[in-house]
Write a sequence for this structure.
């Protein structure tokens, strides 16, 4: 396989600004399977500290609701309930399931929260990927489809209407967690905040100026482009983020629910949107759709912008952005 050409990640490049609050707090902790950095700026130190704690509280609540890596989460209960059985999941899970279904519809099923049976079949949950045989793939594909996921928001319940179905919110839950964490931080008295949950960024309110930097994987100290990060979220998806190797081939963790196979190639997609949930889901969808269809999808959504880093066959890569994005290219 061709070597990895570009790593598109968002790096916070804080620059000192003519701005100061008396309270600043920052913590790095491991949550939702990834390191998270939370910074809060507030009029006082106690509020800044409280805001950071509030963010981590949200992260662990979302994990206990939506993780599929633990059997005791609400989502794992839904997945274990069997076809056609309603499960009380609460309003938060219902809302995220509905948002996930909406992105699934808008992306023609490129993003699909019911992808978990495929994720399992390919071995991504066992840590050892293996190419499945055609018969197993055909069988499992029959239980993948967002239209069979039924959500009753008013009743706070959901059900899976097909045998073998299972939901994976791994492509959207971090974004949701960021939105909720920012709201909790404001409530706790923060006037500004910067959150980095495994490369999903969110900046809100007043604070030092920040930009999201797109870096070169061969030299991560080399920022090739930057975008301002002001009251916005930025999510990046790409197969290089997480992959397994089998018989010398690399298989990335993002699957194409339309084919049942891991998405090939090293396309990397960053999406900016006011809502972190939307940025997260669209970045994953962009990887599955590829440059042309992915760009069209993001262009169509008001308030969302995207940057695609497209590897060139001869080496290097092209950066292609949606029309409304102020991308500053550097070091190229
Ligand atoms: P992200 O890192 O946000 O791009 O999300 C990737 C994760 O979402 C994977 O590790 C899977 O858990 C899940 N996933 C994989 N393929 C898809 C897909 N086509 N649609 C929705 N979620 C997916
Ligand atoms: Mg995502």
């Amino acid at each position: 396989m061709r070597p990895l050409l570009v790593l598109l990640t968002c790096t916070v490049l804080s620059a000192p600004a003519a701005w100061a609050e008396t309270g600043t707090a920052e913590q790095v902790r491991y949550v939702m399977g990834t390191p998270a950095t939370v910074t809060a700026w507030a009029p006082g130190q106690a509020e800044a500290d409280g805001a950071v704690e509030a963010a981590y509280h949200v992260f662990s609540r979302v994990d206990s609701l939506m993780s599929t890596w633990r059997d005791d989460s609400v989502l794992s209960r839904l997945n274990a309930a069997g076809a056609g059985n309603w499960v009380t999941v609460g309003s938060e899970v219902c809302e995220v399931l509905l948002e996930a279904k909406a992105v699934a519809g808008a992306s023609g099923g490129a993003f699909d929260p019911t992808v978990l049976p495929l994720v399992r079949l390919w071995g991504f949950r066992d840590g050892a990927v293996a190419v499945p045989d055609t018969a197993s793939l055909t069988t499992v594909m029959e239980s993948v489809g967002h239209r069979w996921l039924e959500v009753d928001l008013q009743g706070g319940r959901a059900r899976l209407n097909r045998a073998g179905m299972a939901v994976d919110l791994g492509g959207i839950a971090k974004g949701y967690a960021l939105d909720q964490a920012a709201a909790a931080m404001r409530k706790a008295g923060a006037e500004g905040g910067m959150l980095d949950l495994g490369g999903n960024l969110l900046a809100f309110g007043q604070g030092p100026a920040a930009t999201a930097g797109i870096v070169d994987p061969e030299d991560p100290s080399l920022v090739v482009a930057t975008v301002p990060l002001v009251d916005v979220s930025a999510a990046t998806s790409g197969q290089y983020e997480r992959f397994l190797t089998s018989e010398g081939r690399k298989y990335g963790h993002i699957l194409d629910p339309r084919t049942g196979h891991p998405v090939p190639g090293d396309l990397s997609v960053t999406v900016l949107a006011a809502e972190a949930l939307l940025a997260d889901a669209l970045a994953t969808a962009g990887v599955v759709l590829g440059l042309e269809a992915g760009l069209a999808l993001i262009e169509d959504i008001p308030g969302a912008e995207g940057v695609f880093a497209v590897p060139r066959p001869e080496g290097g890569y092209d950066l292609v952005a949606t029309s409304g994005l102020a991308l500053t290219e550097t070091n190229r």
Q: What stands out?
A: The first strand starts at residue 11 and ends at 12. The radius of gyration is 20 Å.
